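Issue 218. Parser rejects a valid record. Input:
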Amino acid sequence: MEKKFLVETSARHIHLTKEAVEVLYGAGAELTVKKMLSQPGQFATANEKLTLIGPKGQLQASVLGPVRKANQIELSFTDARALGLKDVPVRESGDVAGTPGLKIVGPCGEIEITEGVIIAKRHIHMTTADAAELGVSDKEIVSVKLDTARPLIFGDVVVRVSDSFALAMHIDTDEANAACAFGEVYGTIVK
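Output the parser choked on:
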């Protein structure tokens, strides 16, 4: 029997450095937990949303914690077009070299980042035990069939293996809309 796993929609969001948090929210500010996410240690913040300003528009975005070593903004292609950003690459989280930047405005200040905007490559988080059970390895590229009212097979899905992860696939809002992936959705790897 094929092992099913949760498929979650990752809406536009921002990861910030400690320094950026203090500029945007004020000296001494820290990210506070609103709710924990499926990945251990990751959380949506209770801090208010920030404004992303691009060449042609602006959008509100939530901040995820904890703080990171580099600022990163994850958008969908629809978001990038709305902001007027061109050539936003599909990348794995953390791979921001040579990507576009934009302005981030908070309640106490603003920053201009010169790089850090990506379309997140769809991926599956899993532990080494999950990977063994599913017959895959770290960085392997697989296809995943979503079990929805509008079934769809996504190709080019990267497997990310770490014992600090919990089994779940992440897609962006454009991908979720295409697959009618609303509510609790499950997927299986297609061999």
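Fixed in the parser; the record now loads. The longest helix spans residues 18-25.
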